[in-house]
Amino acid sequence: MTVSTPAAASRIFISYRREETAYPAGWLFDRLVEHFGQGQVFKDVDSIQLGDDFVEVITTAVGKCDVLLALIGSQWLTITGGSGRCLDDPDDFVRLEIEAALTRNVRVIPILVGGAQMPHAAQLPPSLAKLVRRHALELSPSRFDFDIGQLLSVLDRSLAERQAQRADLDASRRAARVKLASESAVIAAPMSFAGSTTRVRNVVERIHGNMSLKISAVTGLVLVLLLWWATIACWYLIFGILLVPYRLFRRGQRKRDVAMLRHREMMAAMTTRPRDRNGR
Questions:
Q1: Homologous superfamily, domain 12-172
Q2: CA 212/CA 219 separation, integer angstroms
Q3: DSSP 8-state secondary structure symbol assigned to residue 134
Q4: I want to staple 73 with a disulfide (CB 3.0 to 4.6 A). Which of 1, 20, 149, 195 is the partner?
Q5: What is the pLDDT of residues 140-161, one digit of tens each?
């Protein structure tokens, strides 16, 4: 069977009682791991490491899961502990797991095994009453592969929807962060300008209050003006020296052009002058 790779945050939590549905839970866990991968399915015995805090690990797993599979056997309602029926104990782990999933509006799928029937709301604590409205899947040994196929189809669709919702939420959060950063920059800009104006005003006030600073400021201004005028004079001098040979060359060339033009005019006049009767 092909192993799918949903997002790391997509988790499937298997809630079961060891006294009643340990074997069906193990079979279901193996098929889900084969399909989704080891890190995507949580089952207490197979997912809690030695030395881990049992309560803390289960609470965290339920808080992160996207789908909770509640295995219900024929004695799920009636199993008792030291203080009576287990479901009536507020600290019962199965009750806490299902309560947390229902509170978070996680998809809870009841899995009926061993011929079990869905309980009635009157048979459950008030905090578990919403469980009876969840559509259940009957897991039968005689059609195990067919039932598992139905479950895998539902899980694939549910996890894909949760992943799309998570992607939309992440995109909305990123857009909100960008908008907040832009607004913060717009708000900070006038404040920064105001701070710069205040610093300039403080410098001016210090200059007015200190005669030595006044003299230094005037001296600095004069030096800047002198340097500016000296720079301009240097540029004029440099360009003047460089342009003298060029101007002399151009003046001589113009004189030669004028002389050549006059020579041509005289030659043309001599060529076109009319002759007398003697041919002169």
A1: Toll/interleukin-1 receptor homology (TIR) domain (3.40.50.10140)
A2: 10
A3: S
A4: 20
A5: 888 888 999 999 999 999 888 8
